[in-house]
Amino acid sequence: MIRVLFVDDHEMVRIGVSAYLSAQPDIEVVAEAANGKEGVEKAFECRPDIILMDLVMEGMDGIEATGKIISEWPEAKIIIVTSFIDDEKVYPALEAGAVSYLLKTSTADEIAGAIRATYGGQSILEPEVTGKLMGKRRKEPLHDQLTKREKEVLLLMAEGKTNQEIADLLFIAPKTVKVHVSNVLGKLEVQDRTQAVVYAFRHHLIK
């Protein structure tokens, strides 16, 4: 079963979507939250496989909640489900650590499909979001998307360190290193560690 936490300030939305998802043979909504603060607490309490996160909520919004969760739990898989597609919402949400971004116009089937895909390691983005990101990438180098931690991991990869050695040096779990390596490969649009290191040398990220 894919265990899901649903964070949204509209009770009727939570009730409807949760009922549909819980009727799926492979998905279980294990907790709900009505705001970002409660969402962060529930996330650490039940450690779900997937977190569905609304963006605009009173108090702590979805962007701040996503950032807080990822800062303490980097491997958390957060799907933004919102009505907003503007740049000031999309980019901060993805930069905070969300891996998928859906609009509330998505059907229940599409949300369920996104949950399964994200759980399986894919990143599901609305076509409009993909277009925005591609436009941004044309203006900025791919490595500008790397977080500080991902850059540290990339440098250690260039030194030939294994995931276990990187974990020991950065005082993080090997599983977390694996997530960072996957993020580095994805953001640099390369297939393996060797290609990532070659990219780093070509762009003078490693001296």
From TrEMBL:
**InterPro entries to which the protein is assigned, alphabetical:** CheY-like_superfamily (IPR011006), NreC/VraR/RcsB-like_REC (IPR058245), Sig_transdc_resp-reg_C-effctor (IPR016032), Sig_transdc_resp-reg_receiver (IPR001789), Tscrpt_reg_LuxR_C (IPR000792), WalR-like (IPR039420)
Q: Which PANTHER family has this protein been placed in?
A: TRANSCRIPTIONAL REGULATORY PROTEIN YDFI, TWO-COMPONENT RESPONSE REGULATOR
Q: Name one GO cellular component term.
A: cytoplasm
Question: Annotated Gene Ontology MF terms?
Answer: DNA binding
Q: Which organism is it from?
A: Salimicrobium jeotgali
The Response regulatory domain, residue ranges: 3-119
Kindly provide the name given to this protein in its UniProt entry.
Answer: DNA-binding response regulator
Family matches, as CDD domains: LuxR_C_like, REC_NarL-like
